[in-house]
Predict the 3D structure of the following.
Amino acid sequence: MIALGLEGSANKLGVGLILHPPKGGSAKILANIRHTFVSPPGEGFLPKDTAKHHRSWIVNLVKRAILEAGVTIADISCVCYTRGPGMGAPLQSVAVAARMLALLWGKELVGVNHCVGHIEMGREITGAQNPVVLYVSGGNTQVIAYASQRYRIFGEALDIAVGNCLDRFARTLNISNDPAPGYNIEQMAKKGRHLLDLPYAVKGMDCSFSGILASVDLLAEKLEKSPGVWLDDTTSAAITREDLCFSLQETVYAMLVEITERAMAHVGSSQVLIVGGVGCNERLQEMMGIMASERGGGVYATDERFCIDNGIMIAHAGLLAYRNDLVTRVEDSTCTQRYRTDEVLIKWRD
């Protein structure tokens, strides 16, 4: 069986084609193409502009994916699309495209939960069996474990997602959005040497990032207004923009490691699977790896092909649903900005 997957919940438009062998075995990735809407430095991406980008590129990417995969329309079993969560206008653009292709080609339609797509693709690529999942992106921050055909949320962000916190600080520093603001924050953080005191907001199994962002924004403002060099009040060390990025990363990632370890202890798991765009961050993977190794476990993560939003994860999760008779009628092929991970019936797992 072959599925076409369309992802467009934020600024990345992804189209993927995946093959599930008839006798089982590993899935085969036939095509995984992505195009990103990049806004100017210091600005975020607006829903209307992002939706326009998706509408402009979707046909081109579908054609390229089919050509790259070397398949025909007749070979495709179903058309899968991101039903949510995400930004309304971009989601709607991709849902309309998926509906059009399904009707034009006479294929079944499958609406996919974006978060479940990340998890299932991560499990497929890494081979993680039953891990605690840390899902971290620009729109979501969740600690998840599987139980009774649901991905249960053990902890989450109470306000903004960790990726949104990093992206917004990149705007404060007027850092480029190409290839991604979070990536550019990471590169600057590698040059940081001084850890500044920032709020540490873990509340049970949940995190809060808005106060940390407000605090580091004030430090950035202080740095900008300082004549000459700003010296730290305690150490007298010269503080740089790189130090601010370093301090922000270290603080928020320490919080994520703490709540993930607590979830591992609760469910008795030794595996951590990191998914979502922030999961590409090497420092987060390193910190999580130290914690997991101390517990006799390990970390599973993917590279930017699968961490960052992509169409292949939607194709994979959609095909799992399709094989278990979970399809979406055309009249029900809506999209929603709020679609929690634990709402989805995971019929393909015991």
Summary: Residues 157 and 207 are 5 Å apart (CA to CA). Residues 241-267 form the longest helix (27 residues). The longest strand covers residues 28-36.
